[in-house]
């Protein structure tokens, strides 16, 4: 079954601290993986995309990793800011006969506090 | 603003009433998607259009739900005889031809439905 599981479900950290969010997937055949950030009451916004051949990619204070062998990805946030408080959703894209199919994780709810 | 636009942003209705949401995608995007999201969950796929053709519908889309994209531009999602279980955020997203290949979706702000 094609599934995306994220952990932890929620996380509270102090401003300035680092954190790492995890995404494990069983989606196959794998095409790519995206991390989205969703602020409360808003639509998700793409942060980064990881393809099969990429292991690490940075976007400012966000660094995503991908291990296609173990089917795991992580999103590391450095020097967190209050504005990082949001839900982070892992989305895996798979190739099917009918085209691409997206499988969404349930998200990790991050809260950054003073 | 040339992003995906949804309205209304919030809708409160009584059980049994019909509601309609509208989505205006990014103008050059030919694919349009509807998702439903409940609190603490990721978006769940409802349906998508390529131009004016509705190519796929989820089993979540009961016969009380109907979506249209008559001219391949804006889309509407109608829910008839609403139930309390329909309370959710309804997200619209669009993608370009190349964006579809990479699975990149541009989401709107969502329409939050509360059924009393």
Question: What would your notes on this structure say?
Answer:
The complex is a heterodimer of chains A (about 110) and B (about 120). Helices cover about 0% and strands about 60% of the residues of chain A. Chain A has about 110 residues and is mainly β. In chain A, strands 2, 4, 5, 9, 10 and 11 form a six-stranded mixed sheet that branches. In chain A, strands 1-3-8-7-6 form a five-stranded antiparallel sheet, with no helix packed on it. In chain A, a hairpin with a 6-residue loop joins strand 4 and strand 5. Chain A is globular and about 50 Å long. The N and C termini of chain A lie far apart (about 40 Å). In chain B, strands 2, 4, 5, 6, 9, 10 and 11 form a seven-stranded mixed sheet that branches. In chain B, strands 1-3-8-7 form a four-stranded antiparallel sheet, with no helix packed on it. In chain B, a hairpin with a 6-residue loop joins strand 4 and strand 5. Chain B contains one helix and eleven strands. Chain B is mostly beta strands. Chains A and B meet through strand 4, strand 5, strand 9 and strand 10 of A and helix 1 of B.
Radius of gyration of chain B: 13 Å
Roughly how many Å is the radius of gyration of chain A?
A: 14 Å
> Structural class, from secondary structure content of chain A?
mainly beta
* SSE pattern of chain B: EEEEEEEEEHEE
Number of strands of chain B: 11
Count of separate DSSP helical elements of chain B: 1
**Strand segment tally of chain A:** 11
The largest sheet of chain B is: 7 strands, mixed
Biggest chain-to-chain interface with counts: A-B, 24 and 21 residues
**Secondary-structure content class of chain B:** mainly beta
């Amino acid at each position: 079954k094609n599934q995306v599981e994220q952990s932890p479900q929620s996380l509270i950290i102090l401003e300035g601290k680092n954190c790492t969010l995890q995404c494990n997937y069983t989606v196959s055949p794998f095409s790519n993986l995206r991390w989205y950030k969703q602020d409360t009451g808003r639509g998700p916004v793409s942060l980064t995309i990881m393809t099969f051949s990429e292991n690490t990619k940075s976007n400012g204070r966000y660094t995503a990793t991908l291990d296609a062998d173990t089917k795991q990805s992580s999103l590391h946030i450095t020097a967190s800011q209050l504005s990082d408080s949001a839900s982070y959703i892992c989305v895996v894209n798979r190739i099917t006969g009918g085209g691409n199919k997206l499988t969404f994780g349930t998200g990790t709810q991050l809260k950054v506090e003073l | 603003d040339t992003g995906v636009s949804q309205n209304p942003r919030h809708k409160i209705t009584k059980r049994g009433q019909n509601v309609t949401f509208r989505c205006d995608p990014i103008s050059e995007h030919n694919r349009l998607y509807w998702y439903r999201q409940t609190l603490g969950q990721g978006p769940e796929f409802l349906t998508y259009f390529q131009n004016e053709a509705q190519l796929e519908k989820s089993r979540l889309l009961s016969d009380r739900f109907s979506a249209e994209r008559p001219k391949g531009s804006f889309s509407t999602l109608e829910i008839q005889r609403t139930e309390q279980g329909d309370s959710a955020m309804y997200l619209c997203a669009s993608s370009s031809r190349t964006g579809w290949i990479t699975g990149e979706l541009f989401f709107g702000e969502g329409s939050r439905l509360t059924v009393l």
